Amino acid sequence: MYSILSQGRQGFRDHQVWGKMRYPLRRLTAMLKLYDLNLSPNAFKVRAVLHELELPFETIPVDIMQGGGQTPEYLAKNPNGKVPVLEDGEFVLWESNAIIKYLARLKPEAGLLPEDARPLARLDQWLFWQSGHYYTPIINLAVEKMFKPMAGKEPDAVLVASLTQDFLRLTQVLNQGLTGREFLLGRISVADFALASTLVPRQQLGLDISAFPAVAAWIERMEARESWKKAK
Length: 232
Prior knowledge:
This is Glutathione S-transferase. Residues 30-111 form the GST N-terminal domain. Residues 116-232 form the GST C-terminal domain. Keywords: Transferase. It comes from bacterium (Candidatus Blackallbacteria) CG17_big_fil_post_rev_8_21_14_2_50_48_46. This protein has helices spanning 41-53, 72-77, 96-106, 117-150, 157-178, 190-198, 213-223, 226-231; strands at residues 3-4, 15-18, 21-24, 26-27, 32-36, 57-61, 85-88, 91-94. By secondary structure, the protein is α+β, with helices and mostly antiparallel strands. It folds into 2 domains: 3-110, Glutaredoxin, CATH 3.40.30.10; 117-231, Glutathione S-transferase Yfyf (Class Pi), Chain A, domain 2, CATH 1.20.1050. Strands 6-5-7-8 form a 4-stranded mixed sheet, with helices on one face. Helix 1 runs parallel beside helix 3. The longest helix has 34 residues, at 117-150. The radius of gyration is 18 Å and the shape is globular.
């Protein structure tokens, strides 16, 4: 394993150039640690990217449902009390899309992060859209259709119908973005892992994507990858 070379508190100094981007040098350090929850699509995407990059890591389960995210020790790592969290030596990072971009920079030769400004901006567009829009109906449907029944509560049928329509409308946006492409940027990138992971619980939530042929073909390609299978 390798880690960021830092100069005490003065931040990162040593670097090497890959295309037009500057990447920190890596040095031997402890194993990457992923604070994980198997049910979380956001944690799944990090596991999948770690496997895609063939970066060794260990997982540390966090039982969010039983308050594992609210302990003082965990809140010191992520004050939001959520998963995933990545530890690389003394460097601690939360927010799944920030984590997968960081991981891609650790192994730039894998090509999961573009070098030029425009494709990088397009990648960020999809990452922001995933976290700010596409994930919202999915997580709220999970609350209604999975977590409420687990707690002995009835789902809100009107809300479920509304959230399902939101999901279908947003999936059409994704379908347009994938039409004529194998992957969101033409070649595979962390954007594909971020968006595809959002669809991991679709069957449990009763969501049908067959009306979106570009999305259906793309998710089939993603699910066929060894990294995806290993992340399950």
